[in-house]
UniProtKB/TrEMBL annotation:
Pfam families, alphabetized: KAP_NTPase
Stated name of the protein: NKPD1 protein
Cited InterPro entries: KAP_P-loop, NTPase_KAP_P-loop
Transmembrane annotation, as ranges: 165-185, 197-217
Originating species: Hylia prasina (green hylia)
Tree of life domain: Eukaryota
Length: 364
């Protein structure tokens, strides 16, 4: 049908476009938008499988995931190795799409609709990869760096971390040895100073290891979603110094973690945020979502694809009622064109699509 042609064209485009990108997925009917989004998602999954098979035929290594044995490998690399983005990694064609459907109507009752967008993003990324790798990345992980020259080495040992860990273990062993000698060896038991030194050295080195483990446990229990909810639930959150920078910091950690997982999984990652039901919300909240996409999530290295499924004839009057139109001559279409990187308008339903819809309705 005509709709299949439009959706497949868009899905193939999104597989090759640079990120971050905001796609204006414009269609006049809200119910039709849902079915078209489902078609785009299905076609992108097909394209993802095709690219994966083509990459394996070229002789490249098989991708891996942070599950089962791969989880142990990921934790080992997170703790002791630094990822490197090589030329071979940049040439990889296989993709993995993480689809996140965000219904703005579900968060329309809260004061800050844009916070719902950020928490939904953090929650689904954490759920996709697992809580433990992300918690370890918060404490021990490092952002990937680009390779120098033509080096194809993707992992570099973190010598500083290894030296610190071995130093703490040696100091801990020395402190325990001194303490055992002071407690068990005859003739030395009376030396109280030796016991104090041994217990102090053992407790100091052991406490550093325990603090690191507690930091990982804290990030495992308290997710990024809960951190942002705590900030927004505060009665004076609007007056907190650096409030927006705290939330942006959480998003930047998430972007660095996705870059790490790209190197680990040996594929390119793309997070597809499908934003729906935005034209059912109040004008101020509609403008807040646009501000969130512009200020919080549009990092130059962010692998985000925003699929804004809206009806422009409804969104534009909402935008023109808010204060974001100052300096744009109250022109909502001009603001929408500046906010959207790739506008994609779906024409009215063609005859084949209508016949297919009637056939499906009769069969059910």
């Amino acid at each position: 049908t005509e709709d299949d042609v439009y959706c497949r064209c868009l899905s193939r485009t999104l597989c090759h476009t640079a990120t971050p990108v905001t796609v204006g997925f414009y269609a006049p009917c809200g119910h039709r938008l849902e079915s078209l989004l489902n078609k785009v998602t299905a076609f992108m999954r097909e394209e993802m499988s095709r690219c994966e098979a083509a990459e394996l035929l070229r002789g490249h290594r098989k991708p891996r995931s942070p599950r089962g044995w791969g989880l142990l490998v990921a934790l080992w690399l997170l703790a002791f190795y630094e990822p490197v983005v090589t030329e071979g990694h940049l040439r990889r064609k296989n993709l993995e799409f993480i689809f996140i459907r965000f219904s703005a109507w579900e968060f329309a009752g809260c004061d800050k609709l844009w916070a719902g967008l950020v928490t939904t993003l953090c929650h689904h990324v954490r759920q996709h990869f697992g809580a433990l790798p992300l918690s370890v990345f918060h404490v021990l992980g490092s952002r990937p760096r680009f390779a120098s020259g033509f080096s194809q080495r993707e992992w570099v040992l973190k010598k500083g971390t290894c030296l610190k860990l071995w130093g703490l273990l040696l100091v801990l062993a020395a402190g325990l040895a001194i303490l055992l000698v002071a407690l068990l060896v005859p003739g030395v038991k009376d030396h109280r100073a030796l016991k104090v030194v041994g217990s102090a050295v053992a407790s100091l080195s052991g406490s550093s290891l325990v603090l690191g483990a507690l930091s990982i446990l804290k990030n495992f229990v308290v997710s990024e979603k809960k951190k942002i909810e705590r900030l927004t639930d505060s009665d004076r959150f609007a007056g907190q110094l650096g409030f927006m920078s705290k939330i942006r910091g959480e998003v930047e950690v998430l972007v660095d973690y996705l870059a790490f997982m790209e190197v680990f999984e040996r594929r390119r990652l793309r997070v597809v945020l499908e934003i729906t039901s935005l034209d059912l919300c109040y004008p101020e909240k509609v403008a807040g979502v646009f501000n969130a996409m512009a200020t919080l999530l549009s990092d130059a290295n962010a692998p985000f694809i925003f699929l804004l499924a809206v009806d422009p004839s409804v969104i534009v009057p909402c935008l023109e009622q808010t204060g974001c139109m100052k300096g744009l001559a109250d022109n909502g279409y001009l603001y929408l064109n500046r906010a959207v990187t790739l506008p994609f308008s779906i024409p009215e339903m063609g005859s084949r699509s209508r016949l297919r819809s009637v056939e499906a309705a009769i069969q059910t």
